[in-house]
# Entry
Amino acid sequence: MTGQNPDTENAIREWLADSAPHAAPASLRRTLEEVTSGPEGHARRRFARRPSLLLAGRMAAAVAILAIAASTLYLYGQGRPAATGPSSSSSSGSTTSPSVSASASMPPSPTPADTVTPTATETPSPTSPSRSATVTQLPASSWSLVAGALPQTEQTVTGSYHQPVFALPSGGFIAFVPAASGETRAFASTDGLQWRELAALPTVGVVVSDVTEAGGTIVAAGRVEGGDPAHTSAIAWTLDGSTWQSFAPSPEDGSSFDHVAAGPAGFLISGLGPTGFRLWSSRDGATWSPVAETGIPSDVYQSELLGNARGYVAAQVFAPRVWQSTDGIHWTETYRAPALSGLSNYYMGSIVRAPDGSYRSFGGIYTGTGIASPVLGDTWIWTSPDMTHWTISGSIKSPGWIHAVVSTAGGFVAAGTQPASASGWGASLFGPLAAWTSGEGRSWQRIAGLSSLPNSQVLAVVSDGTHAVIVFVDAQNNLELLVGAGLK
# Structure
């Protein structure tokens, strides 16, 4: 982004196309392509039920999507709550204990014999030794800069970066790094500092959008990218010993798997099919079936999917709505954000579990004027005691351009870039790296010692409850990590 005020539709479209896809998860990027495509301000219809948008509405959605991608989502599944029993989605925003207390809205139910059961898991066995990495401790801090632990990454066929690192609910991390050959290499780490290589994914040209685990089984969800969104293919992988087994429901039909979670009925994957929002279920992570009528509208987009020992939560983050299910089949709407006037709309960020066992979401308001908070404005905070029922609990001044917020030992970690100016379009997804910590999520302190780093783009902020990892890429496609244990 140039930092100059665009005054034409083409300038906005070019800026959005250049900036947002690099940080946005599959569903965000695809929706952005939809709302910024088509002649004379008319959006291309992807699904029959999704209404077309005129120029004002289309640009409103596009800028709001950018704000979500740049602020608190993830891409690709960040800040998932950890769980006892079947583990939640991978980018856990858990506290030091990975257990989730029983939710009042999710009463206990009998556990079927073939339900995924809670077991302690180990980081997957490596297939090669640790990579040589340089670990530099930041002065007077528990944070370390890690260079060389992961290989250079490549942009996807659409010219974007995607989230390379995911947290495992039982502890540790897994990374998927695209190579120039089209192969996606996989790595595992217990602490974010030392990494060991696993078997590569068996599919070429893929994007991994989310990862979870339960009962010792790791499931990754994503898509095989085609030349355009209409030719993508949903795909999932299950780690079976030292090899990955893949599942692809239907090739090149424009479908994608966006999120994966685990709960009392096993694994669930959410994504998009030719008719809109869809769910797929699996008891073991190997055999998958589409879920029939769920009660969730097919035009839901910008979705989240979460799971814990009591059930599942699906959420639409732009114009927020939340649904809850104990079995992954029957869903009940439990929250809808208040409506705002004109083009304005609330949007939530990723849902993270706070240190006190409750839940948080850091989002904002798209104002309808071309400027969205909290890019350079206010961050709105949602709170929930049980992950299903939500209350807006006020707003704070955003400390910078926030890519994502996660929960870690003692509080929260946010990362992004420091704005080039205090107002206007001066902020950028690619700029001076900035990271902040907070004990309660309202007052933020910037992590010192980062001013000497070159301009970077934050690709992920993840936490396994003990360690937090900020993943960023420089102009030479080098992946670097900022790893911390706690807030200091």
